[in-house]
Amino acid sequence: PGPADSKDVPPEVATREAALAVQDDETSEQPVVLVIADNAAMRSLMEKTLKTQFRTIVANNENSGWEKAQAQVPDLVITDIETSQNFCEKLRDATITSHIPVVMLTANAEQENKAQGLQADADEYISKPFAPEELRQRVQNIIAQRENLHHDFNRQLAQPRDIFSSDPEIDFMDSLLEILEERYAEATFDADALTTARGLSRIQLHRKLKALTGKSTQEFLRDFKRTRSQQVLPADRTRIMGNR
Questions:
Q1: Mean per-residue pLDDT for 212-222?
Q2: Mean pLDDT, to the nearest integer, of 93-107?
Q3: Where are residues bearing 4-aspartylphosphate located in the sequence (predicted)?
Q4: Cα dist from 112 to 36, 56, 88, 103, 138, whole Å
Q5: Of 50, 149, 173, 209, which has the fewest beta carbons less than 10 angstroms from its beta carbon?
Q6: Does 193 score more than 80 pLDDT?
Q7: Tell me, what's the pLDDT at 14?
Q8: Which among 140, 125, 134 is positioned nearest to 33, based on CA atoms?
Q9: Are 203 and 126 members of one domain?
Protein backbone atom coordinates (compact mmCIF):
# COMPACT_ATOMS: atom_id res chain seq x y z
CA PRO A 1 0.00 0.00 0.00
CA GLY A 2 1.13 3.53 -0.71
CA PRO A 3 1.70 6.26 1.85
CA ALA A 4 -1.31 7.59 3.73
CA ASP A 5 -3.10 10.49 2.15
CA SER A 6 -2.11 13.67 3.96
CA LYS A 7 -5.77 14.74 3.80
CA ASP A 8 -6.83 11.77 5.94
CA VAL A 9 -7.31 13.07 9.47
CA PRO A 10 -8.05 10.71 12.38
CA PRO A 11 -11.66 11.20 13.60
CA GLU A 12 -10.55 12.19 17.09
CA VAL A 13 -8.26 14.87 15.65
CA ALA A 14 -10.97 16.18 13.32
CA THR A 15 -13.42 16.31 16.23
CA ARG A 16 -10.93 18.16 18.42
CA GLU A 17 -10.11 20.65 15.64
CA ALA A 18 -13.81 21.27 15.01
CA ALA A 19 -14.40 21.91 18.71
CA LEU A 20 -11.50 24.36 18.84
CA ALA A 21 -12.78 26.14 15.71
CA VAL A 22 -16.20 26.61 17.32
CA GLN A 23 -14.62 27.84 20.56
CA ASP A 24 -12.46 30.33 18.65
CA ASP A 25 -15.49 31.58 16.75
CA GLU A 26 -17.58 31.95 19.91
CA THR A 27 -14.89 34.03 21.61
CA SER A 28 -14.37 36.28 18.57
CA GLU A 29 -16.75 39.20 18.17
CA GLN A 30 -15.55 39.95 14.64
CA PRO A 31 -17.75 38.90 11.70
CA VAL A 32 -16.04 36.58 9.19
CA VAL A 33 -15.55 37.85 5.63
CA LEU A 34 -14.34 35.61 2.79
CA VAL A 35 -12.46 37.45 0.03
CA ILE A 36 -12.10 35.61 -3.29
CA ALA A 37 -9.91 37.32 -5.89
CA ASP A 38 -7.63 35.90 -8.57
CA ASN A 39 -5.43 39.01 -8.51
CA ALA A 40 -2.91 38.98 -5.64
CA ALA A 41 -2.76 42.78 -5.34
CA MET A 42 -6.56 43.01 -5.10
CA ARG A 43 -6.68 40.24 -2.48
CA SER A 44 -4.05 42.04 -0.44
CA LEU A 45 -5.85 45.40 -0.72
CA MET A 46 -9.19 43.99 0.41
CA GLU A 47 -7.65 41.98 3.24
CA LYS A 48 -5.77 45.05 4.48
CA THR A 49 -8.93 47.18 4.20
CA LEU A 50 -11.15 44.77 6.13
CA LYS A 51 -8.94 43.01 8.67
CA THR A 52 -9.16 45.70 11.35
CA GLN A 53 -12.93 45.19 11.70
CA PHE A 54 -13.53 41.71 10.33
CA ARG A 55 -11.93 38.29 10.57
CA THR A 56 -10.82 37.98 6.97
CA ILE A 57 -10.05 34.77 5.09
CA VAL A 58 -8.86 34.77 1.48
CA ALA A 59 -8.97 32.50 -1.56
CA ASN A 60 -7.38 32.92 -4.98
CA ASN A 61 -9.88 31.00 -7.13
CA GLU A 62 -13.41 29.63 -7.22
CA ASN A 63 -12.53 26.12 -6.02
CA SER A 64 -10.58 27.37 -3.01
CA GLY A 65 -13.31 29.90 -2.25
CA TRP A 66 -15.99 27.22 -2.40
CA GLU A 67 -14.08 24.95 0.00
CA LYS A 68 -13.58 27.79 2.47
CA ALA A 69 -17.19 28.95 2.19
CA GLN A 70 -18.40 25.42 2.98
CA ALA A 71 -15.94 24.87 5.83
CA GLN A 72 -16.05 28.31 7.49
CA VAL A 73 -19.56 29.56 6.55
CA PRO A 74 -18.55 33.26 6.56
CA ASP A 75 -20.86 36.16 7.35
CA LEU A 76 -20.21 37.69 3.93
CA VAL A 77 -18.40 36.86 0.67
CA ILE A 78 -16.67 39.33 -1.65
CA THR A 79 -15.82 37.98 -5.10
CA ASP A 80 -13.54 39.40 -7.78
CA ILE A 81 -13.16 36.47 -10.17
CA GLU A 82 -14.29 35.84 -13.74
CA THR A 83 -16.83 33.27 -12.53
CA SER A 84 -18.36 35.46 -9.81
CA GLN A 85 -21.88 35.07 -11.19
CA ASN A 86 -21.67 31.27 -11.29
CA PHE A 87 -20.08 31.21 -7.84
CA CYS A 88 -22.88 33.33 -6.40
CA GLU A 89 -25.49 30.98 -7.85
CA LYS A 90 -23.57 28.02 -6.42
CA LEU A 91 -23.68 29.55 -2.94
CA ARG A 92 -27.41 30.17 -3.21
CA ASP A 93 -28.07 26.54 -4.20
CA ALA A 94 -26.24 25.01 -1.21
CA THR A 95 -28.15 24.70 2.08
CA ILE A 96 -25.22 25.63 4.29
CA THR A 97 -24.28 28.78 2.32
CA SER A 98 -27.62 29.92 0.89
CA HIS A 99 -27.98 32.73 3.44
CA ILE A 100 -24.55 34.33 2.92
CA PRO A 101 -24.67 37.85 1.42
CA VAL A 102 -22.42 38.35 -1.60
CA VAL A 103 -20.64 41.48 -2.82
CA MET A 104 -19.46 41.29 -6.44
CA LEU A 105 -16.66 43.50 -7.78
CA THR A 106 -16.26 44.38 -11.44
CA ALA A 107 -14.07 46.58 -13.60
CA ASN A 108 -17.05 47.37 -15.81
CA ALA A 109 -19.67 49.78 -14.52
CA GLU A 110 -22.15 49.16 -17.33
CA GLN A 111 -25.75 48.44 -16.35
CA GLU A 112 -25.69 45.10 -18.19
CA ASN A 113 -23.02 43.76 -15.84
CA LYS A 114 -24.88 45.06 -12.82
CA ALA A 115 -28.03 43.33 -14.03
CA GLN A 116 -26.09 40.05 -14.33
CA GLY A 117 -24.87 40.42 -10.77
CA LEU A 118 -28.36 41.08 -9.47
CA GLN A 119 -29.71 38.18 -11.52
CA ALA A 120 -27.23 35.92 -9.73
CA ASP A 121 -28.75 37.23 -6.47
CA ALA A 122 -25.73 39.24 -5.37
CA ASP A 123 -26.52 41.62 -2.51
CA GLU A 124 -24.18 44.42 -3.57
CA TYR A 125 -22.33 45.41 -6.72
CA ILE A 126 -19.17 47.55 -6.47
CA SER A 127 -17.32 48.89 -9.49
CA LYS A 128 -13.53 49.13 -9.55
CA PRO A 129 -11.64 51.19 -8.73
CA PHE A 130 -13.24 51.76 -5.34
CA ALA A 131 -12.29 53.67 -2.21
CA PRO A 132 -11.30 51.30 0.64
CA GLU A 133 -13.62 53.13 3.02
CA GLU A 134 -16.54 52.58 0.63
CA LEU A 135 -15.93 48.82 0.64
CA ARG A 136 -15.57 48.72 4.41
CA GLN A 137 -18.75 50.75 4.97
CA ARG A 138 -20.86 48.70 2.58
CA VAL A 139 -19.72 45.44 4.14
CA GLN A 140 -20.52 46.88 7.56
CA ASN A 141 -24.01 47.92 6.43
CA ILE A 142 -24.87 44.51 4.99
CA ILE A 143 -23.78 42.68 8.13
CA ALA A 144 -25.72 45.14 10.31
CA GLN A 145 -28.87 44.50 8.25
CA ARG A 146 -28.46 40.76 8.73
CA GLU A 147 -28.10 41.20 12.47
CA ASN A 148 -31.58 42.74 12.58
CA LEU A 149 -32.94 39.29 11.70
CA HIS A 150 -31.56 37.97 14.99
CA HIS A 151 -33.85 40.21 17.04
CA ASP A 152 -36.87 39.37 14.89
CA PHE A 153 -36.30 35.63 15.04
CA ASN A 154 -35.61 35.58 18.76
CA ARG A 155 -38.98 37.24 19.35
CA GLN A 156 -40.71 34.51 17.36
CA LEU A 157 -38.65 31.39 17.98
CA ALA A 158 -40.97 28.91 16.27
CA GLN A 159 -42.12 31.12 13.38
CA PRO A 160 -39.32 31.20 10.76
CA ARG A 161 -41.83 31.85 7.95
CA ASP A 162 -42.70 35.18 9.57
CA ILE A 163 -39.05 36.25 9.60
CA PHE A 164 -37.15 34.87 6.61
CA SER A 165 -38.07 35.74 3.04
CA SER A 166 -35.86 33.08 1.45
CA ASP A 167 -37.17 29.54 1.05
CA PRO A 168 -33.80 27.86 1.84
CA GLU A 169 -33.64 29.65 5.20
CA ILE A 170 -37.25 28.78 6.01
CA ASP A 171 -36.64 25.13 5.08
CA PHE A 172 -33.44 25.01 7.12
CA MET A 173 -35.01 26.43 10.26
CA ASP A 174 -38.16 24.32 9.83
CA SER A 175 -36.06 21.14 9.62
CA LEU A 176 -34.04 22.16 12.67
CA LEU A 177 -37.13 22.98 14.72
CA GLU A 178 -38.71 19.69 13.69
CA ILE A 179 -35.71 17.80 15.08
CA LEU A 180 -35.86 19.84 18.28
CA GLU A 181 -39.59 19.25 18.77
CA GLU A 182 -39.07 15.51 18.47
CA ARG A 183 -35.97 15.16 20.64
CA TYR A 184 -35.42 18.14 22.95
CA ALA A 185 -36.87 16.29 25.96
CA GLU A 186 -34.26 13.53 25.71
CA ALA A 187 -31.85 13.76 28.64
CA THR A 188 -28.81 13.18 26.42
CA PHE A 189 -29.88 15.48 23.58
CA ASP A 190 -27.23 18.21 23.40
CA ALA A 191 -25.60 20.46 20.79
CA ASP A 192 -23.50 17.59 19.44
CA ALA A 193 -26.58 15.40 19.05
CA LEU A 194 -28.38 18.20 17.19
CA THR A 195 -25.39 18.65 14.90
CA THR A 196 -25.31 14.93 14.11
CA ALA A 197 -29.06 14.80 13.54
CA ARG A 198 -28.86 17.71 11.08
CA GLY A 199 -25.96 16.09 9.20
CA LEU A 200 -23.56 19.03 9.42
CA SER A 201 -20.18 19.62 11.01
CA ARG A 202 -20.05 21.50 14.32
CA ILE A 203 -18.59 24.63 12.76
CA GLN A 204 -21.12 24.57 9.88
CA LEU A 205 -24.17 24.41 12.12
CA HIS A 206 -22.66 26.90 14.55
CA ARG A 207 -21.92 29.45 11.82
CA LYS A 208 -25.27 28.96 10.05
CA LEU A 209 -27.24 29.38 13.28
CA LYS A 210 -25.08 32.32 14.31
CA ALA A 211 -25.85 34.03 11.00
CA LEU A 212 -29.59 33.42 11.17
CA THR A 213 -30.28 33.82 14.90
CA GLY A 214 -27.21 35.40 16.48
CA LYS A 215 -26.82 32.36 18.76
CA SER A 216 -24.45 29.44 18.96
CA THR A 217 -25.85 25.92 18.64
CA GLN A 218 -25.64 25.48 22.41
CA GLU A 219 -27.38 28.79 23.10
CA PHE A 220 -30.10 28.07 20.54
CA LEU A 221 -30.80 24.64 22.03
CA ARG A 222 -30.80 26.02 25.58
CA ASP A 223 -33.26 28.79 24.72
CA PHE A 224 -35.50 26.40 22.81
CA LYS A 225 -35.69 24.05 25.80
CA ARG A 226 -36.36 26.97 28.13
CA THR A 227 -39.17 28.28 25.91
CA ARG A 228 -40.79 24.87 25.67
CA SER A 229 -40.55 24.26 29.42
CA GLN A 230 -42.24 27.60 30.10
CA GLN A 231 -45.06 26.61 27.76
CA VAL A 232 -45.48 23.18 29.36
CA LEU A 233 -45.40 24.21 33.02
CA PRO A 234 -48.62 26.31 33.02
CA ALA A 235 -50.45 23.44 31.30
CA ASP A 236 -49.16 21.01 33.94
CA ARG A 237 -50.31 23.28 36.76
CA THR A 238 -53.78 23.55 35.22
CA ARG A 239 -53.99 19.79 34.92
CA ILE A 240 -52.93 19.29 38.55
CA MET A 241 -55.48 21.83 39.82
CA GLY A 242 -58.20 20.12 37.79
CA ASN A 243 -57.45 16.76 39.43
CA ARG A 244 -57.89 18.05 42.96
A1: 90
A2: 89
A3: 80
A4: 22, 30, 17, 17, 22
A5: 149
A6: yes
A7: 42
A8: 140
A9: no
How high is the mean pLDDT of the chain? 79
The pLDDT score that the predictor gives to residue 8 is: 40
Q: Hey, which residues does 57 pair with through a beta bridge? A: 34
In whole angstroms, give the CA distance from residue 114 to residue 210.
30
Helix 191-198 to helix 202-213 angle (10° resolution) is 100
Asked if residue 193 and residue 171 are part of one domain, the reply reads yes
Residue 92 in this model has a pLDDT that exceeds 60: yes
Using CA atoms, how far residue 107 sits from 97, 129, 207, in Å, is 26, 7, 32
How far apart are alpha carbons 180 and 242 in whole angstroms? 30
> Tens digits of per-residue pLDDT, 17-32?
455 555 555 556 789 9
Tell me, yes or no, whether 184 and 63 share the same domain: no
Q: Which of 77-91, 119-133, 158-172 has the lowest mean pLDDT?
A: 158-172
Indicate which CATH number applies to the domain containing 41: 3.40.50.2300
**Cα separations (Å) of 191 from 34, 78, 157, 197?**
26, 31, 17, 10
Q: Tell me how far apart the alpha carbons of residues 194 and 208 are, in angstroms, rounded to a whole number.
A: 13
241 domain-assigned = no
Q: pTM of this prediction? A: 0.75
Is residue 107 in some structural domain? yes
87 shares a domain with 26: yes
Asked whether residue 229 is assigned to any structural domain, the reply reads: yes
Would 92 be classed as within a structural domain? Answer: yes
